[in-house]
Design brief:
alpha/beta, Spore Coat Polysaccharide Biosynthesis Protein SpsA, Chain A, seven-stranded mixed β-sheet, 25% strand, binds guanosine-5'-triphosphate, binds magnesium ion
Length: 199
């Protein structure tokens, strides 16, 4: 699969990790590598640029060889805070967002999001696993930065309500539910480590 050089992958590693006992989830190890390293390895070949969004351990995150940006809003206000920080730093017209804790990505994640958006002539494409939207896996143009800024200035934080203001295409991943296996708790980490993740 050829890389989409005009896309920046934004890896969201800015959460509190509260279900993981407050650990910085991107840095916990799976099969001897930090979780975010698994995500970087899977997404790097698909895009022209990678940006890491983190709020702690910034110098550690810089060691992965990509720019690291922190939220411009304080106090862990959720993934949209990470979207906004990324849109303020973006050097490409579009970004694909994804979380730091989902290591089982297909090699056509970016391709599928682009195709879905083109086909529907939408502004945004969001992954759909066949049952529900997976809102942090999305293709979003930088052009929507002011819309997001206004939305957050208004005090809202819900991702679905912001999407509802725009034309959104659903990218079908119902054949690949493992894409969205992610690690929120020590139990989920153990399950994935033991290879029982896809159930
Ligand atoms: N930039 C940024 N990203 C966030 C924030 N909160 C969550 N995220 C990211 O959004 C994605 C989904 O969040 P969760 O899986 O709930 O991760 P989390 O919020 O760290 O974990 P919990 O505290 O257990 O909910 C992850 O990639 C997080 O890193 C935030 O305040 N800022
Ligand atoms: Mg959370």
């Amino acid at each position: 699969m050829k890389p989409h050089l005009d896309i920046t992958a934004v890896i969201l590693a800015g959460g509190r990790g509260s279900r993981m006992g407050g650990e910085d989830k991107g840095l916990i190890e799976l099969h001897g590598e930090p979780l975010i390293q698994h995500v970087i390895a899977a997404i790097e070949p698909q895009v022209g640029h990678v940006l890491i969004n983190a709020n702690r351990n910034l110098s550690r995150y810089r060691q992965f060889g990509h720019p690291v940006i922190a939220d411009s809003l304080a106090d862990f206000q959720g993934p949209l805070a990470g979207f906004l920080a990324a849109m303020q730093a973006l050097s490409t017209a579009d970004m694909v967002t994804l979380p730091c804790d989902g290591p089982l990505l297909p090699d056509d994640l970016v391709e599928r999001l682009i195709k879905a958006r083109d086909k529907a002539q939408a502004e945004i494409a969001v992954a759909h696993d066949g049952k529900r939207l997976q809102p942090v896996y999305a293709l979003i143009p930088k052009q929507l930065r002011d819309s997001l800024q206004r939305y957050l200035n208004g005090g809202d934080r819900k991702i679905d309500l912001w999407y509802a203001k725009h034309r959104v295409a659903h990218a079908d991943f119902s054949d690949l539910p493992r894409t969205f296996v992610n690690i929120n708790t020590p139990q989920e980490k153990k399950r994935l480590q033991d290879g029982q993740s896809v159930a």
